[in-house]
């Protein structure tokens, strides 16, 4: 098959360092477009490819050097986009892992706290979810309506779970 000039995208492993740097914004843009179209899995794959390019370049730098930090700061928004996709795919433990790794380096990242809070809530880590949402409010009080909605949703899910548990365990100890 013959492809139009510029339409062929080389695999990251076959790219030079310069080609990787040039490809990342394009791959990021493709991921955003796929996400907007509701193609969440495909978007996640694009973000993952862009992260892989940058991580490959980052491995060649000394940990903590200005170039390493610059690459890390390019990885972070891609990783947050990737986590948003994983949230929608209900892959909560991956979100917890990635957001925690971001927060270990950038402890003021509101988006990482918010996504991690949503993931904690989804896997019934109530105290952790509440702590993350509290941190979101401390860092950005303007997000109170969004955080309040998440906390109300968590409370409703907890009430629902408690009601189900009461029915499920009713009479279990009365025999």
From TrEMBL:
Q: Which UniProt keywords apply?
A: Receptor, Repeat, TPR repeat
Q: Which parts are the TPR repeats? A: 110-143
UniProt keyword annotation of Cell division present: no
- Which Gene3D superfamilies has this protein been placed in? Tetratricopeptide repeat domain (1.25.40.10)
Keyword Transferase, does the record have it? no
Q: Which InterPro entries match?
A: AIP/AIPL1/TTC9 (IPR039663), TPR-like_helical_dom_sf (IPR011990), TPR_rpt (IPR019734)
SUPFAM superfamilies for this protein: TPR-like
Q: How would you summarize the oligomeric state and partners of this protein?
A: Interacts with RET in the pituitary gland; this interaction prevents the formation of the AIP-survivin complex.
Q: What does this protein do?
A: May play a positive role in AHR-mediated (aromatic hydrocarbon receptor) signaling, possibly by influencing its receptivity for ligand and/or its nuclear targeting.
Q: What protein name is recorded for this chain?
A: AH receptor-interacting protein
Organism name: Eudyptes sclateri (Erect-crested penguin)
């Amino acid at each position: 098959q013959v492809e139009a000039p510029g339409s062929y995208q080389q695999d990251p492993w076959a790219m030079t360092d310069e080609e990787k740097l040039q490809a990342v914004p394009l791959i990021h843009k493709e991921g955003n477009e796929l996400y907007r179209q509701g193609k969440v899995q495909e978007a996640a794959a694009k973000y993952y490819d862009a992260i892989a390019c940058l991580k490959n370049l980052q491995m060649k730098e000394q940990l903590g050097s200005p170039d390493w930090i610059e690459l890390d700061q390019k990885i972070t928004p891609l990783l947050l986009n990737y986590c948003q996709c994983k949230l929608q795919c209900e892959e909560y433990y991956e979100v917890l892992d990635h957001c925690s790794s971001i927060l270990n380096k950038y402890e003021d990242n509101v988006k990482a706290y918010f996504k991690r809070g949503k993931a904690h809530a989804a896997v019934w880590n109530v105290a952790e979810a509440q702590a993350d949402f509290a941190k979101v409010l401390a860092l950005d009080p303007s997000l109170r309506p969004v955080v309040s909605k998440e906390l109300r949703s968590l409370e409703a899910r907890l009430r629902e779970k408690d009601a189900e548990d009461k029915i499920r365990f009713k009479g279990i100890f009365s025999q």
